[in-house]
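> forwarded from #structure-qc
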């Protein structure tokens, strides 16, 4: 009884302080499946003559299917109505015996870009009538699958503040996505992590059923529903311009793994410091040879497939940011990566990625050598 009186007093105080129904209701839902306590609080709520009390009772009716509980709720609503409290007539049928179910709001999805390491941040909001929203946050990796996962409960008001905070602190823009696709990505990452033998974040298995109910199967990433593939395929002008993507923040920090490119950076350094006198054209030819070798060795079929998917997802992000031209450039790279590599016409974006990565490593090594005169890059 002490708990019931405490909850009743808290509801009364919250109403007086002007809190919303969304903010007040969680304390009522905390009763869980204690039907006796639920009946008691439903009965006593009729003593609080306020419109918000009737709204709280209506939500309780939706949450609890027990006939005894619902009977008490309806009785309390009638008592409130007889005291002059507004109880919307639309919640009753002609017999005045059935409440209208609370409406389920559609799920919401959001996602960020893919960083240089292959990580991506996703958010999924699922509405729970009478209990606010369930919020799922996940970090997925293109090779390792589901890396991190968290879930929490929020009111609609809290969701807005949460999204503002995420957008202000995210290293990449956050755009709205189809909730079913966000669920699809989380499920896909979960299965990939299992296949890789990775540890699954503890919070995911208990709620994966909720995510599976929301997800749909997608044969292709979302960008294919926004830009027609046939409009991009074979457009050499777009593909050549894809190198300019490195001029925008989303791609400016992209680099290949240092351990992967170190051998090729060493070859470039040796060619540059060679005692053999080479003409400018010979030196340029030697550099191009090293870059081409690096591109061929570093981008196997599997890695090309990973970058194809990465560029498809980034194209969607750019499109939703209002950068449709840049989205087409990213999409053109993805479409080109479906083809077999052409040694005489390498993918311009990947080629630029290789050269930028190598020269960045050489530049960093040179800076270190100024502090450590005898520093040598080891192959």
């Amino acid at each position: 009884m002490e708990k019931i009186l405490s909850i009743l007093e808290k509801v009364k105080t919250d109403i007086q302080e002007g809190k919303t129904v969304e903010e007040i209701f969680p304390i009522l839902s905390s009763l869980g499946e204690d039907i006796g306590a639920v009946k008691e609080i439903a009965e006593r709520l009729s003593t609080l003559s306020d419109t918000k009390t009737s709204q709280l009772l209506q939500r309780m009716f939706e949450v609890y299917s027990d006939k005894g509980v619902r009977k008490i709720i309806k009785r309390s609503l009638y008592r409130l109505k007889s005291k002059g409290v507004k109880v919307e007539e639309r919640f009753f049928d002609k017999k005045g015996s059935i409440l209208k179910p609370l409406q389920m709001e559609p799920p919401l999805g959001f996602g960020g870009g893919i960083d240089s390491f292959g990580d991506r941040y996703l958010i999924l909001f699922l509405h729970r009538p009478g209990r606010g929203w369930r919020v799922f946050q996940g970090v997925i990796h293109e090779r390792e699958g589901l890396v991190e996962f968290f879930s929490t409960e929020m009111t609609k008001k809290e969701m807005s503040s949460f999204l503002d905070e995420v957008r202000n602190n995210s290293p990449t823009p956050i755009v709205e996505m189809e909730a079913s696709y966000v669920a699809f990505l989380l499920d896909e990452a979960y299965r990939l992590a299992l296949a890789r033998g990775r540890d699954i974040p503890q919070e995911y298995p208990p709620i994966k059923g909720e995510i599976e109910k929301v997800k749909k199967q997608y044969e292709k990433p979302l960008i294919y529903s926004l830009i027609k593939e046939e409009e991009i395929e074979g457009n050499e002008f777009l593909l050549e311009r894809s190198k300019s993507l490195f001029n925008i923040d989303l791609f400016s920090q992209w680099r290949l793994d240092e351990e992967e490119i170190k051998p090729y950076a060493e070859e470039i350094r040796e060619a540059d410091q060679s005692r053999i006198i080479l003409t400018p054209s010979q030196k340029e030819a030697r550099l191009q040879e090293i870059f081409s070798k690096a591109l061929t060795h570093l981008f196997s079929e599997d890695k090309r497939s990973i970058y194809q998917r990465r560029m498809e997802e980034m194209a969607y992000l750019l499109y939703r940011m209002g950068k449709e031209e840049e989205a087409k450039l990213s999409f053109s790279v993805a479409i080109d990566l479906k083809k077999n590599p052409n040694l005489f016409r390498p993918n311009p974006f990947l080629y630029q990625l290789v050269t930028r990565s190598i020269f960045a490593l050489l530049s960093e090594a040179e800076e270190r050598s100024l502090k450590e005169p005898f520093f040598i890059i080891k192959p």
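QC bot note: Residues 2-91 form one domain. The mean pLDDT is 87.
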